[in-house]
DNA sequence: ACTAAAGCCTGGCTGC
DNA sequence: TGCAGCCAGGCTTTAG
């Protein structure tokens, strides 16, 4: 059993996908659809592929072969023949399902890719935030949204020196900065909170004021929290639900969604404060500015 | 140039 | 039981 064995019927996430979740979907797609040909597609939600049109999109995808699956940050890259890439962002609630033609279509099925093995890949997205775009491979690094992304967190380019430079000159809080994919790649609201907790740094600390020592701690924490999540996602797969993150996964969160609960390290009550429309969780005792 | 906040969305949950 | 209203948050756009 490899780390990413899963029920082949469904490829979806329950939680908002951050980099570890996207990585999991990518590995699943690699096993399911690479080598398959798209015999037809049915884009049902126009804005999913805007500013392209459904007619154009379906025409371009018809008879395309999927030659590989990649990832850049939280973007899924479905590589097609003809040196083209179907770039997909799941945003909040985007999910892929791999099913037979007899399976019932789920709610919010906004794009359906019929494959040459009588299976179909369904993109569903309850909140309709997800987006898809077809680009030439040579233009991928110039594509808006991808062009300015920070280096991959597990790569050599995401060094301590890089992080130090990324933080310098910014008066934003660390929490805000960690969510900026052009500064630090891969974290969302959950893992940003978890990384700061591991590094014992307040989410309200000002980026440019962080000491080198604490920057180093943050650097390690970011990688640790992402790596930990990747390692533990498998254990959270529920067979009856196919592929979702339930209580077993949430249990690993140390501060996120734990307002009022005792800190796992010091017992102080975890606090929550909303800012910029989203919740920040932290331990007021362990995490200092 | 930089930063903060609004907007996009729908379904689950809470409280009346 | 119904229903209003809050809440979830990745990213883009707008405003300051």
Structural features, described:
The protein has helices at residues 19-33, 54-61, 160-167, 174-178, 189-199, 212-233, 247-250; strands at 10-11, 37-43, 64-72, 75-80, 84-89, 94-100, 109-115, 119-125, 131-136, 271-275, 278-282. It has 289 residues and is of the alpha+beta class. The strands form 2 sheets. Strands 1-6-8-7-2-3-4-5-9 form a 9-stranded antiparallel sheet. α1 packs parallel to α6 (212-233) and α5 (189-199) packs across α6. The structure holds a DNA duplex (16 and 16 nucleotides).
Secondary structure blueprint with pairings:
Layout lengths: L9 E2 L7 H15 L3 E7 L10 H8 L2 E9 L2 E6 L3 E6 L4 E7 L8 E7 L3 E7 L5 E6 L23 H8 L6 H5 L10 H11 L12 H22 L13 H4 L20 E5 L2 E5 L7
The chain binds a DNA duplex (16 and 16 nucleotides) through loops.
How would you briefly describe this protein structure?
With 289 residues, the protein is an alpha+beta fold.
Features:
about 290 residues, nine-stranded antiparallel beta sheet, 11 strands, elongated, disordered N terminus, DNA-binding
The portion of residues forming beta strands comes to 15-25%
The arrangement of helices and strands along the chain is EHEHEEEEEEEHHHHHEE
Sheet with most strands: strand arrangement: 1-6-8-7-2-3-4-5-9
Largest sheet: 9 strands, antiparallel
The rounded Rg comes to 20 Å
Q: Helix share of residues?
A: 25-40%
Let me know the number of strands: 11
